[in-house]
Design a protein that fits this description.
This protein is α+β, with helices and mostly antiparallel strands. The protein has a domain of about 130 residues: Ribosomal protein L5 (50s Ribosomal Protein L5, Chain: A). The protein has 5 helices and 5 strands; from the N terminus they run ααβαββαββα. The chain has a 5-stranded antiparallel sheet with strand order 2-3-1-5-4. Helix 2 runs antiparallel to helix 5. The chain is globular and about 55 Å long.
Length: about 190
C-alpha cells in the first residue's frame, strides 16, 4: 500500500522534476511557485446584514482555512447600493506557507470532487500567472456542517503564483492536480 504524499512533499519532489523537464529550466529556484492563496467572501447586503450572519461567515471561513478572517469595509458611500462608508462588505483570508499548501491539498483532493456534476475547472488564467476558482456553495468543504439553504454563501479562491505569464503557471497547476476541463475540439461544419 502506497503512502499518500502531501502537496508540500510533492511540490519539492516529483512536481519540481516534472516542471524542470516540461519548462526546460535547470535551476530549481527559477521554477514557478505558489506565493499565496486568498479566500474571499462578498457579503450580500440583503441576505447577510445581521451580526449573526457576519459571525457565521467568519466562523465558516476559519473552519475552512484554519485562520481567522478579516472583514473588509466599504471605502465610500454608494447610495444606489445602500452602502455607507465603513460598512462590512466582505471577509477575506490570506494563506501562506504550510497552511496554504494544506488548504490547496484539501481543495484539490476532497472539495472539488464533491461538486455535483463536476466536469473540471476552466483553463483560463488572468494573463499574469494567477488563477481564480469561484464556488457557489461553501458547504462542500468537509469541515463545514450542512447549513440551512438560507445560510449558504459563495467563496472565491485566488491562487497567486510568481510566474509572469500563464503557460508556466498552468503547467504548475496541472502537475499539482488541478482538474482542468478538457479542451473542446472544433467540429468542422460541412457546407453543401
Amino acid at each position: 500500500m502506497k503512502k499518500y504524499e502531501s502537496l508540500h512533499d510533492r511540490l519539492r519532489g516529483p512536481i519540481a522534476e516534472a516542471l524542470k523537464k516540461e519548462l526546460n529550466i535547470t535551476n530549481v529556484h527559477a521554477l514557478p511557485r505558489i506565493q499565496k492563496i486568498t479566500v474571499n467572501v462578498g457579503m450580500n447586503r440583503s441576505k447577510m446584514d445581521s451580526k449573526e450572519s457576519h459571525e457565521f461567515v467568519a466562523k465558516s471561513l476559519a473552519e475552512m482555512t484554519g485562520q481567522k478572517a478579516v472583514f473588509t469595509l466599504s471605502r465610500k458611500a454608494i447610495s444606489n447600493f445602500k452602502i455607507r462608508e465603513g460598512l462590512k462588505v466582505g471577509a477575506v483570508v490570506t494563506l501562506h506557507g504550510r497552511r496554504m499548501e494544506e488548504f490547496l491539498d484539501r481543495l484539490l483532493s476532497y472539495v472539488l470532487p464533491r461538486i455535483r456534476d463536476f466536469r473540471g475547472v476552466t483553463t483560463k488564467l488572468d494573463g499574469h500567472g494567477n488563477y481564480a476558482i469561484g464556488l457557489k456553495d461553501h458547504s462542500i468543504f468537509p469541515e463545514i456542517p450542512p447549513a440551512d439553504a438560507g445560510k449558504i454563501f459563495g467563496v472565491q479562491i485566488q491562487i497567486t503564483t510568481n510566474a509572469k505569464t500563464d503557460a508556466p503557471a498552468r503547467a504548475l497547476l496541472k502537475h499539482m492536480g488541478v482538474p482542468f476541463r478538457p479542451e473542446r475540439t472544433e467540429k468542422k461544419s460541412s457546407k453543401s
